[in-house]
Design a protein that fits this description.
The chain contains eight helices and 16 strands. With 471 residues, it is α+β, with helices and mostly antiparallel strands. It has two domains: 278 residues, Alpha-beta prism (UDP-n-acetylglucosamine1-carboxyvinyl-transferase, Chain); 160 residues, no CATH class. The strands form five sheets. Strands 1-2-4-3 form a four-stranded mixed beta sheet, covered by helices on one side. Strands 5-6-8-7 form a four-stranded mixed beta sheet, covered by helices on one side. A four-stranded mixed beta sheet has the order 14-11-15-16, sandwiched between helices. It is globular, with a radius of gyration of 24 Å. This is RNA 3'-terminal phosphate cyclase domain-containing protein.
């Protein structure tokens, strides 16, 4: 496709870097915020199988276009090319004038599949933070029906325990997330729902430190000059780990004859104990300076405290699921600097023949095949716990470098890798709001080796859309 004649119109190649849906979500969000038209070709061309827009992407595009009054071409499912053209013009700054914008107090979005709810939210959130000041209520309710625990996407648990607290710590307004029902994209697909309570920039509600809203009257019209906060991750201390939380979602199949940690316990209990054991073993290999100096607490009605861990260990969430493919584990570290570092894993445990409902003598005795199947399930559960702990240890092992060498600069940020890519768009918007554009070069104080392909893709999109703005 030829480059658009309008110099403000940005053409993006959807195959760049990660080449997935993240590129689309960030591009349309920035387009709505800046009033700068964006066209994307080769959408999700790097993805195996079906390329083009998925249902969740098309849902986000339509809603964002409706809210911002933008025009969309090619926004249907399967489209490999689309253009997003806002009708709102920029005011004196990089962001659009909101005086003619109408924002509702509630939105109810149905993806109609178990597509990732949090990824639809990712496309809407920056614009809602800015335009939400035009709503007739202190905060906007956005309810989304789809997948709450999808594969390769943020879950409700990660979003509520890691993303929302970190957003607030970095200066964004409070974000509250409510779970109505869980939705899974694996195994027996089922839809769930979440509601996001979005406080706009400048909100005085809640406990956020968002910037205040400045309003000025120009020719009888009120314009909003609220800005995204300037974010410098390297200005924040990494801190030391003060507490670790565990979330386990798994079936309550009974383990009736497995040697190891426990006998006659449920699969959910087995995963909890296995994760704790592997975490305890892995933490012995980490330098003690990673952890805050404190005595682990034993105060817990469920005996959740683990005296052999260097910091308190808490069961944050433990829920029964109803299929062997609906298994989820999340570990979250709290740091002394107020951040959360998380790592999660979603997996399937293969097949499992339930004995509940068997009658007579068959209920009392398991066949040899049953026992093998059960051992396979618990073996798979062990591997999931191991994988989650290993990923978690990679995230926290360098969270607090040895402070004995004061001449060595800190290069690792206070965030985990997945959280890091969620912050890129807000870093860029903060820089654009305060300087009028964004730098073409990444922050050299940060070790780019920690950046994922998603992080690099987000940075590239931000530079393409925000870097050439004339204000």
């Amino acid at each position: 496709m030829a480059q658009p004649s309008n110099p403000e119109h940005v053409l993006l190649n959807g195959q760049t870097l990660e080449g997935g849906g993240q590129l689309v979500r960030i591009a349309i969000g920035l387009s709505a915020l800046t009033g700068r038209p964006v066209s994307i070709e080769n959408i999700r061309a790097n993805r195996p199988g079906k390329t083009g827009l998925k249902r969740s992407h098309a849902t986000a595009v339509k809603l964002l276009a409706d809210v911002s009054g933008s025009q969309v071409t090619g926004g249907q499912v399967g489209s490999q090319f689309m253009s997003f053209v806002p009708r709102t013009e920029r005011m004196n700054g990089p962001l659009v004038d909101l005086t003619q914008t109408v924002v509702q107090s509630k939105y109810d979005i149905n993806i109609s599949t178990a597509g990732a709810i949090c990824l639809v939210f990712q496309a809407l959130y920056p614009y809602m933070l800015y335009a939400g000041s035009q709503a007739p209520v202190p905060f906007i309710r956005v309810k989304i029906t789809g997948g709450t625990n999808p594969s390769k996407s943020p879950s409700f648990d990660y979003a509520s325990q890691v993303m929302a607290p970190n957003f607030a710590k970095l200066g964004l307004p409070p974000l509250e997330i409510i779970l109505h029902e869980r939705g899974w994209s694996s195994g027996p697909v089922c839809l769930g729902a979440m509601t996001f309570l979005i406080h706009p920039l400048g909100s005085k509600d809640g406990q956020g430190d968002g910037p205040s809203i400045e309003r000025s009257n120009v020719e009888g019209r009120t314009s909003t000059a609220n800005k995204f906060p300037k974010i410098d991750l390297m200005a924040h201390e990494n801190g030391k780990i003060t507490q670790i939380d565990l979330t386990v979602l798994a079936p309550d199949y009974v383990n009736v004859d497995t040697d190891g940690l426990c006998k006659k316990c449920t699969l959910r209990d087995y995963i909890t104990q296995t994760t704790r054991q592997k975490l305890r073993s892995a933490m012995r290999k980490i330098h003690p300076s990673t952890f805050a100096l404190q005595t682990p607490s034993r105060e817990s009605s469920n005996d959740d405290a683990e005296p052999e861990l260097p910091v308190p260990f808490r069961i944050h969430t433990s829920e029964a699921t109803y299929h062997h493919s609906h298994v989820y584990i999340l570990l979250v570290a709290h740091t002394s600097s107020g951040f959360r570092i998380g790592h999660d894993i979603l997996g399937s445990l293969g097949s499992h023949k339930k004995q509940n409902g068997q009658k007579g003598r068959n209920k009392q005795r398991l066949t040899k095949d049953d026992r093998h199947a059960e051992r396979d399930v618990f073996s798979a559960a062990t591997e999931l716990a191991r994988g989650c702990v290993e990923g978690f240890m990679q995230e926290i092992s360098n969270v607090n470098p040895d402070e004995s060498d004061a001449t060595t600069p800190t290069t690792k940020t206070c965030l985990d890798q997945h959280m890091r890519d969620q912050i890129v768009v807000f870093e860029a918007l903060g820089e654009a709001c305060h300087t009028g554009t964004i730098s073409e070069v990444a922050n050299t104080r940060e070790d780019g080796r920690d950046w994922t392909l998603h992080t690099r893709t987000a940075q590239w999109v931000c530079r393409q859309v925000l870097g050439g703005i004339n204000v």
